[in-house]
Amino acid sequence: GLLASERKIERGAFSLEVTIPPNTSATVCLPAAAGAAVESNENLSAARDKAEARFETEAGTYRFRVIPAR
Fold first, then answer.
1. How far apart are CA 31 and CA 36, in angstroms?
2. CA angle 60-63-65, nearest 5°?
3. Model-level pTM?
4. CA 22 to chain centroid
5. Which DSSP string do the residues of 1-70 spell out, in sequence order?
């Protein structure tokens, strides 16, 4: 199946769209320093540390956005 990703930085926010093929899962790691807000189009919980946010995903298309702390 198709595994695809597209990323961009817009107005200081990092955006990522990723497609995970059927019958697979993936760990999506995003750069997210302490204090950064992380959003997703699904209600996914992130494991966080000082430098990143990690999401465990199943097959599907996901959109993430990281907004740096000001």
1. 9
2. 155
3. 0.89
4. 18
5. ---EEEEEEETTEEEEEEEEEEEEEEEEEEE--TT-EEEESS-PPPEE-SSEEEEEEEEEEEEEEEE---
Average pLDDT in the 23-40 region?
A: 94
Q: State how beta strands 13-31 and 4-10 pair.
A: antiparallel
CA 54 to chain centroid, in Å, comes to 7
pLDDT at 23 over 90: yes
Angle at 36 between CA 26 and CA 59, to 5 degrees: 15
At 44, the amino acid letter reads L
- Kindly state the tokens that stand for 7: 């990323």
Q: CA nearest 54: which of 17, 26, 35?
A: 26
Per the listing, tokens 């760990």 go with: 27
Average pLDDT over residues 27-47: 93
